[in-house]
Amino acid sequence: MSGAGVLRRPVLKAFARSRQRPVRRQIAPFHRFRLFVDEYLLWHFAPTGERLKPLRQAIAAQAEQMEGLSYPGLVRLCRQTLRAEDLLKPGAGAERIAAVQEVIRRETGLRLRTNQIECAVLLLNGDCVELRTGEGKTLSAALAALAAASVGVSTHVVTVNDYLAERDHDLIAPLAARIGLSSAVVLQSDADADKRSAYDCDIVYGTNKTFVFDHLRDKREQHQQSERALLRQTGQALAIVDEVDSVLIDDATVPMILSEPAELPPEVDVVLFRNLIAFARALVPGQERVLDSHGNWRLTKAGIAHLEEVAPQWRHPLARTADVIKLAELALTATFGFLEGVAYILREGEVVMVDQATGRLMPDRKWDYGLQQMIEIVAGVAVTAETRTVGHITQQTYFRQYRILSGLTGTAHECRAEFWAIFKLAVKPVAPHAPSRMVNHGLRLFRRADAKWRAVAERAITMAKDRSVLIGVNDVSETNALVAVFQNIGCEVAVLNALSEAQEAELVAQAGQAGRITIATHLAGRGTDIALEEGVRAAGGLHVIIASVMASARLERQLYGRAARQGDPGSYDRMISLEDRGLSEGAFSLLRHSVTWLLRRRILPRFSLAKIHADRDRRARSLRRKTLLREQDMRRRLGYK
Questions:
Q1: Nearest Cα to 111, choosing from 128, 123, 124, 98?
Q2: pTM
Q3: Rounded distance, CA 219 to CA 22, Å?
C-alpha cells in the first residue's frame, strides 16, 4: 500500500484574505472504526518525504548562486510573481526558497544548515518535523513562513506562549519587511481593532489559545449579529505550529470554552456545597471513599449509606434525590482530587487553574458549576459566579480546519500514530547537524519522597560546583517540597514554574551559569535556549535531574533535551521515589498493577517504568479520542459549524 493511496493531500495555494468568505478546510466527521484503523495501521503508510529530495538538492545548488547577487537583485527575486503551487518544485520554487534563505543570512548573519532547510521544506509540505532541541527550529519556521507568504499564502505561526510569539516575530519582522511582506504578533490582551489589523498581515505570530479564542469570538458575533459582525480572523490557509506536540497532543484533552460570567450562585446552593465538602472530609478513607479503576473518587456502599443518613438534613431540593450521590463524589474530587499547587494555585484571593500538560496558569478557565465553587470553598476563598458557555471547540477541530497544517518539535516520535489518525500529519525525523554528546547517568529509585528530595539536592549541589543544573518536577507542590530541602541546607536556587511565568525569560537566560541550580516544572521555559557559559561547557555542560515520575517518556525527553544542545556536552539523571504521584495516582490497568508491583520490589525498574509510561500514554490517547468524538457529537446535535 503506497502513501499516495492513503491520502490525497492539499497543496499550497494562494487565497485572498477575507472576513466574509474565509478559506478553511471542510473537515469530515470522524468514525470510531476509521480512527482505530488509522491509529493502529494506516499511519505506517503515511507519505514519505523522498519526492522532496530533488527540491532540496536544487535549493542547495541555487544557494551558491544567490551569494553572488546584489541585495536589490535578491529582493527583486523574492518579490517576483510565483504561483504558490510551484513553490515546492525544483525550478522556480527552489530559486525562491534559496533567495529567502540568502536574505535571512544577510540580515541575521546566520547561515541555515542543511537540516534546517530540510525542516522548512517539510513544513511547507504539511508535515510534522521532529528535529532535536537546539537545532534551530525557529529559523526553519521563519524560512518556511517567509517563503509561503512570498507567494501569497497567508501564514499563521503558532507558539505556546506570548513571550515566544513576540520573540520569534521580532526575529522575522525585519526580514519580512525587507522582501515586501507584512507581519504582526497577535496577543490575547490586544484590542479587537489591533487584532483585525494583525490578521490582515501576511504572517501572523500568536499562541494557540489566542488563535482559537479569537475564532470562537468571531463565531459568537456571527451568530449574534449575522452579516453586521466585524470579525477578526481572515481565514485558515497555512499554520506552522511550534512545539506541535504540546499544542495538538498535550492541550487536546480540554475543550477551549468561551464563557461569560452569569449571576452569583444562590445562597441555598452555596450552603449545599459547604455541607458536601464537610461530608467529604469526614468520610473514612478505604471504607467510605475509594479511588475507582479510572482514578476517580467514588463513594462505597458504606459511604452512600452515610450520605443517606445526613442528606435529608440539608435544606436543598437535590438533597433528597439520587443526584446528591453525584454531587457528593464531586465534593470528593474537589477535596482530594484537585489539590492546591497541583491543579490550581491561589493568586490574589482567587483560584487559578494550572494546565496539567504544560504547568502554565490558565486564568481564563474555570471548572463546571458546582466543582468550581466547591474547590473555592476547599481553598478558603470567596465563591465566584457561575459562567455561561457561549462557544466551545477542541484544538483538534480548530487546527484541522487549516488547509495545510504543519508543525515541528523535538519529541514527536511517541505521537506518530495519533498525529496521523487525527490530523493526517506524517512525522518526519530530521537528523541533527552534529552527533549527540549526551551522557545518561542512569536511574535511582527511592522508597520515600523525602529521601529522594534530599538525594536530589545533594546531587545538584555536587554537579553545580563547576556546571549548571536543571531539576525537572511535575508541579508547584513538588517544587515547594524541593525548595524547602535546599533552604534547610542553605543553598539558593531559582524556581521556574506557574508562579514565575513573568520572569521566565530572565530565569532561563541565567540557567546556564556556573553554580546555578534551577528547578522547573516539566514544560516551563520550553522553546527557549539555555545559553551556557564557556566554563560550564568545558566542565561538561548542563546537567538535568528528572526528579519525579513524569506523565510520559516524551515529557522526560523534553526535559533532558534541554542539555547537550547544538553539539554541546550535557548529561542527565533520573531520580524517583515510590511515593511519586506519577506512580500512585491515576487509573490502574492490570498491566500497570503488575509492573508497579515489580517496580516496588526493584525488579527491572527501567522496564517497569517504561511500561507505566506506555500505559499512561495509551489512556491519555483514549481520553483525547473521547473528547474529540464527544465534541463532534455535540456539534452535530446543535447544528454548530
A1: 98
A2: 0.87
A3: 12
